[in-house]
């Protein structure tokens, strides 16, 4: 089955030329496993890749020129990370994406001057400290506390941070954590949260692994009496919810690249050929159904990109895309197992690994349930109180 | 019709649960020594207590043996209960010590990786009509890495003339009881994963209320329970009827479909904690996936069901 149906219509000649540059850049990184991080050793390779991207200005493609960016359309970022996903080479780093864009919108000039140059050049890496044991889908329940210090050698002007984040990706190799924490009363929900930037090597910060069954690693990040200067708070105290929400909005077009699905399907089709399953009409029917859905998700991704380029609110199209895309990731991954061939069980083959990895997709980055609720409320005005 | 468990069945299953409490369970399945290895101690205890003889027992029978397979699997017992409790006795073959491999490869093909293949000393190969019972040399097997709870290996090819060729019709006996047995294994594991998820939905608080108080999730759990109940009675019915082709294929097809949905939903409802190795959910959900490959999986179960009902042309 050919891999040819294109949905690249709508990109300009310049954007397509950029895709060509990306593809030729990628020839130097074949084999780098930074999309899934199946090997612990890939972290160093990814760090180098980000620096190489930074030197080309590709980590700041859509940053405004006044912040040192290239001032290009978000379409360029989409193309870059879509091709990276197809090659399984890397995912977009949080630092130059979400963190940098939030700093430009909410940070002080001093913070921008301190962080943006290294972020642009890929020299510093961030992880996101949002989820907690009792605050997953319900982020407003975050309990990690930042207490302003009234006196003492470090205060005033400092916070003391105590608590724990969990299921944190990349914390074991990042430099900083973008930390959502409580500065208001315990029951203040989304009105009492703030964002702090905390170096992960600060005394009192402990990162420990949470092994997942795709062989990967999430982390628990504990904070015990960690001192953080108030100058490292982004946005006003207790205004963290707005910072986090707006940061999310500007990165949605690169978070779930649709070409990952096209690659998944390609690998699955190749596997059915190797195992001799591809002659079975039942298998072919299933594969063609999946191919149609890949096209659907690509269309939804472009619709989302269009909204982001236009500057219109993108939460609903982003939820559409995430819902359809992540479910399809799982359906492609699960097809091999459904075909009832025990070759699909051999650990770390392409199709086997996809099965274990894909479970995460409909949970991380906003569960399908949160996405569905968001569509119902924001698109149709339905409210759970009836 | 009597759908209640008899006193004999209750006593039997209570005794089995007690045994499994000592020789199986989540803790034992996580022990490095037990992980990936066949549990000879469990097999020996089951044999001594008579559970491997239920199939032909005067006071019990194939249904009781099937119920026992379900329990052993629910408790993550690291043995091969399907051949031991169902297939060997159904074929009238003597008991065997140690793991037994089952395979039904398409004509002219070698079996793919099978559970406990690297330790099995006996394989039952179901052909088109006859079954061959052949000794295996574990030294000749080729282990393959497995992420799905059960160790897997490609067994050495069985040369023609090797082993005992059983009478005509025995291949259907193997397929029927294997389908019933694998479905019973799936039932036991699905039930555990489901119960774990229901408990989580009750205990976990999000947005200031129990996770299970959200109607969208209540409906999904309710639908899963329908699938599970359907699977349960189809499997028991097939066992009660003696694993005829159609009933066993229907039970296996339905169970495999239920398994797919149950895996997706339990993981989704459990969220991030269910993705971690420290949590127990994966002990069942990963093993369940290995069952999907048995006997050619869903496609083959459905084809067998339609062939049994409407004739072989459907295959």
TrEMBL record, chain A:
Protein name: Acyl-CoA dehydrogenase
One Gene Ontology term, aspect cellular component: plasma membrane
Record-annotated Acyl-CoA dehydrogenase/oxidase C-terminal domain positions: 238-379
Gene3D superfamilies: Acyl-CoA dehydrogenase/oxidase, N-terminal domain, Butyryl-CoA Dehydrogenase, subunit A, domain 2, Butyryl-CoA Dehydrogenase, subunit A, domain 3
Acyl-CoA dehydrogenase/oxidase N-terminal domain ranges (all copies): 12-119
InterPro entries linked to this entry: Acyl-CoA_Oxase/DH_mid-dom, Acyl-CoA_Oxase/DH_mid-dom_sf, AcylCo_DH-like_C, AcylCo_DH/oxidase_C, AcylCoA_DH/ox_N, AcylCoA_DH/ox_N_sf, AcylCoA_DH/oxidase_NM_dom_sf, Mycobact_Acyl-CoA_DH
UniProt KW keywords: FAD, Flavoprotein, Oxidoreductase
GO molecular function annotations of the record: flavin adenine dinucleotide binding; oxidoreductase activity, acting on the CH-CH group of donors
SUPFAM superfamilies xref list: Acyl-CoA dehydrogenase C-terminal domain-like, Acyl-CoA dehydrogenase NM domain-like
Family: Belongs to the acyl-CoA dehydrogenase family.
Swiss-Prot/TrEMBL cofactor(s): FAD
Organism (species): Streptomyces cacaoi
Every Acyl-CoA oxidase/dehydrogenase middle domain range: 127-225
Top-level division of the source organism's lineage: Bacteria
PANTHER family per the UniProt record, alphabetical: ACYL-COA DEHYDROGENASE (PTHR43292), ACYL-COA DEHYDROGENASE FADE29 (PTHR43292:SF3)
TrEMBL record, chain B:
Pfam families linked: Acyl-CoA_dh_1
Entry keyword annotation includes NAD: no
InterPro entries reported for this sequence: AcylCo_DH-like_C, AcylCo_DH/oxidase_C
One Gene Ontology molecular-function label: acyl-CoA dehydrogenase activity
Keyword annotations: FAD, Flavoprotein, Oxidoreductase
Domain Acyl-CoA dehydrogenase/oxidase C-terminal: 178-296
Protein name: Acyl-CoA dehydrogenase
